[in-house]
Amino acid sequence: MKFLLIGICALGITGCTKTKPPAPELFKVDPATAAKLRGTVHFVGRKPPLKLISMDAEEACEKLHDKPVDGSGFVVGKDEGLADVFVYVKAGLEGKSFETPKETVVLDQRGCMFVPRVLALQAGQTLAVKNSDPVSHNIHPNPRNNREWNQQQSPGSPDLVRRFVRPEVMVPVKCNVHSWMRSYIGVMDHPYFAVTGPGGDFEWKSMPPGEYTVAAWHESLGELTQKITLAKNGEGSLQFTFRLPE
Question: How far apart, in whole angstroms, are the C-alpha atoms of residue 112 and residue 22?
Fold first, then answer.
C-alpha cells in the first residue's frame, strides 16, 4: 500500500503534493486618513554612576580611546532627553502585514564597542555586522524567539549578513572575546518603531488611525507603556518619563 501511494503521488494526483500557503496581503496606509504620532523620552532625578570600562586585557582596544569609556548605556542629552530607548507600537496593529524594508541595517564593531548600542529592524530585514577594528571579535546574539548564532569576525573580513525572522524585544548581543561589549536589537513585524537619539525624540508620520499601546524600553530602566487613540488625519503626542527606582 505504501508503494502504491508513492506511485500515485508521483503521477501528480491532487491531494498528494503540499501547496505553499499564499503570502499575506500587505497593508498600505491610506494617505487620505493617515495620522501622525510624535513624542519624547525624558529622564528625571538623580543619574546613575558611570561604569568605566577597563580594556587593560586588550592593549589594541585600549589604544583606540584617549579617555575612559562609559559602559553604562545611559546617555542623557539636551533637555533631559534619554537616548538609546527603543520605542515601538506594542498593540493595535494586529492582523496587519507590512512590507519588509530593502535597506540594510548595520551593526559595527568600532573602538571595541558595538555601534550603535541599540538598533532596530523589521523581521526579515537584512542585518550587516561589520568589524572596523584591528582586532578580532566574536558576535553572539542570544535571542529567545529567533535562532541563536555565534561567529568570529577577523579584522578586514567581509560583513556578516543575517536576518531575524520573528519579532522580539529585545535580542541581547555580546562579544565572547571582549566581555564589556553589549548591544540590543529590537525586531518588529511592523515599521512603527524608533531608537531615540540624545534629544529623546521619536516620530511616525504615517499611521493608520486607531487605538494603540506604545512602549518605551531602556536596557537598565525597564519598559513604560502608554495608550493613545489617533483619529483620521489626527496628530498625537506622547511623553515618557524614566527615573531610577527609589
Answer: 45
C-alpha 58: how far from chain center: 29
Residue with cell 537619539: 197
Task: Tell me the pTM.
Answer: 0.89
Cβ-count burial of 99 within 10 angstroms (0-12 exposed, 13-18 middle, 19+ buried)? exposed
Contact 84, 219 (CB under 8 A): yes
For each of the domains in the chain, give its residue range(s) and CATH number, in order of start.
26-93+191-246 (2.60.40.1120), 99-189 (2.60.40.420)
Assess contact for 174 and 181: CB atoms under 8 A.
yes
- Over the range 16-28, which residues count as b (16 or more CB within 10 Å of their CB) and which as e? eeeeeeeeeeeee
Tens of each residue's pLDDT in the chain, 246 residues: 544 444 445 444 455 556 666 767 899 999 999 999 999 999 999 888 999 999 988 999 999 999 989 999 999 987 899 999 999 999 999 999 999 999 999 999 999 999 999 999 999 999 999 999 999 999 999 999 999 999 999 999 999 999 999 999 999 999 999 999 999 999 999 999 999 999 999 999 999 999 999 999 999 999 999 999 999 999 999 999 999 887
Nearest to 159 by CA among 171, 147, 151: 151
